[in-house]
Structures are given as structure tokens and as C-alpha cells.
Amino acid sequence: MDDYQWYKIVEGDEIQQGDILENCPVFVLPPEVDLDSPTILNRIYEIPFQSSDVIVISQTCDMVKGREKISEVLLCAVWKKSDLTSGAMSTKKDWNDARKGTMPGFHVLNKCDLERFKRDYMVVDFHRVHSLPLALTRQIAIRLGQRIRLLPPYREHLSQAFARFFMRVGLPVDIPEF
Amino acid sequence: MPPVLMPAVLHETQPKVGPYGYQEWDAKRELKSLITKIPSLLTGMTECFQSDVATPSGKITEQSDFWKTPIRCIEVISYPTTENETRIDRDYEMELLETQRSALAASITPAIYEAEEDLLDWDAHIETPPPPRSSGTIKGRFRYAGPRKPIPLDDPYA
């Protein structure tokens, strides 16, 4: 059987789907920012940001340098297994359920054994999405130096899982059990 | 001749309100987790009805209707031994204890069917995310840049 690696190490400003950006700043606009206020353009606001591990969800073909088809990159939060000590995804059962795909809001990634990039099992949290301008994301990628990239077919598997979660439809009236 | 003890499923209770799949599954998971956390359930007389669980130290119950999930009730039934019974080294007291223990453990386990194990838990989410590695603020002023325009693309049909 071929050796299908999960990850490889990359660097530079070429962004692809499946790139993991660790300690990436994500901005959270405070709810008190009133975008309709006439004074908004005059005030100086303090905009909070957090450093978070994220994975690129946008399609690679939309981010090709010189042929960009999007201006913002869609990112999802990534949690390491050891980060989650309470609540959902803190038990072995939850990790097994997510691995089997019965928790559609999560997608489990394998651990990474690459030299200098050894990482625990990770979970992509589809409930927490962020977007950053593509140009800024390129700058962040350069600043990070080397990073890990999820490889095919695992990144397509991730993309499919995100699509499955995003396209869910809740029926107001379900068909009763036969 | 001493009787043979056999646990047998008597009946399963029915929920008062038929919750939708994910609610019922969540309730059963919670109930199962709750039961395993209470050792007193495994040491004394235990009675299950709907999803309320009665123990020597009191009744564990939930107000919410969707907690009323089916519980499998099991009773130990004695059967006479057959004439083919030839073992002479049986420890009937130990067998009785083991049977009682296994029946008791089974009787406080919510009936979770294999098919329900495959239900998708759409609502599972992390309520309190781990703290960020670092955080801060940047000071900035908003600037109106006008309405967004689509990125011009090559016409693939041209």
C-alpha cells in the first residue's frame, strides 16, 4: 500500500486548502460597535484579536497567486486533543464519535509525526469560522515560517465534512417513525 | 435441587413524550453518564421507571419530559434445573450474587439500541473554547470603502 502521508511541511505565501496556521490572529468585532452610527468614522476603536490555530477551508484554486477569485480566506478553528479537557470533545467517546462522523460539527485530524512538527490529534471545529483578507493571510503565512499542510485526500475529506455540516437542513416537522 | 437463576427482560417502559431522535439520544447519554457516576446505584436496591432512577438514598429524577426515556427492566427468574445437571462443584451462593449483580447492572442501563448509535449529533459543540494562546487589541478607525464589487473573472465561454 502506498504511504499516504497526512501532512507535509511548507513555507511561503502560497496558501492552500488544508494549511494549518498556528497562532493566527483572528479578529472579533465587539458587539458595541455600531456600524450605523454617524460617529463611527470619527472614533478610534479598540478591536480585540486572539491568536488561534486555524485551518484554511477555502478552495486552493480560488487562491492561486495572480488568479485570485476570492478576497477573504475562510478559516476554521483547530483544537489540539490535549486542549480540550471539559465539555464536548473531552472524552474518548466523543473523539471516537467524531472520528466516525457522527458529530458533524467536528472533523478529526490525525496526529503529525513530522520532525519538529510533532502534533497531537486535532479536531477542526466547524462551529467557529473566521475570515481574513487573503493578502493578510499571505503575510501571516510568511511570518509563521514553516507550517504544516494537510495533504490529499485528507484535505478533500475535510472539505466534504465542512460542506456536509454547512448544508444541513433541519425539518420543522419530521416524518414520524414507521 | 437448587434452582438456576436467569435474568430475563420483562418489559421496557415507554416515554411519556416522544422526543425527536437527537433529544432522546442526548438524554440517554446523559442518563447513562449520570448512572455510572453514582456508585450507590450498584450497591443497593434499584428500581427504574421511565428514566427516573430510585435508589436507597433517594430518587434521581429530572423534570424535563424528554428525560422520560425507556428503561429496560430486568428481573431474575428461577427455573428448575434439568436432570442433565451433573456439575458437583457449583457455588450456588456465588452464582446467585453474580447473577444479581449482572441483572442489577443491566436494569439501570438505559435501553440504547444499536441503530441509535448511528444517529448524528448535530448539536454537539464546544461551549467554552480553550483560552487563546495570546490576545490583545489593536486601535483603529473605521473607514467606509464603498460597496463591495465582485472580483472580475475571465469568461470561460468567451
Strand order of the largest sheet of chain A: 1-7-2-3-4-6-5
Number of helices in the DSSP assignment of chain A: 3
Shape, principal axes of CA atoms of chain B = elongated
- Any idea what the shape of chain A is? globular
Note the beta-strand portion of chain A: 25-35%
Helicity range of chain A? 10-25%
Q: What are the low-pLDDT stretches of chain B, counting only 5+ consecutive residues below 50?
A: 9-21, 39-75, 107-114
Poorly predicted runs of chain A? none
Please report the distance between the alpha carbons of the first and last residues of chain B. Answer: 94 Å
**Tally of discrete structural domains of chain A:** 1
Class derived from helix and strand content of chain A: alpha+beta
| Rounded average pLDDT of chain A | 92
Total beta strands of chain A: 7
Order of helices and strands of chain B: EHEEEEHE
Largest sheet of chain B: 3 strands, antiparallel
Give the total of domains of chain B.
Answer: 1
How many E-type strands of chain B? Answer: 6
- Multimeric status of the protein: heterodimer
Largest sheet of chain A: 7 strands, antiparallel
- Overall pLDDT score of chain B: 60
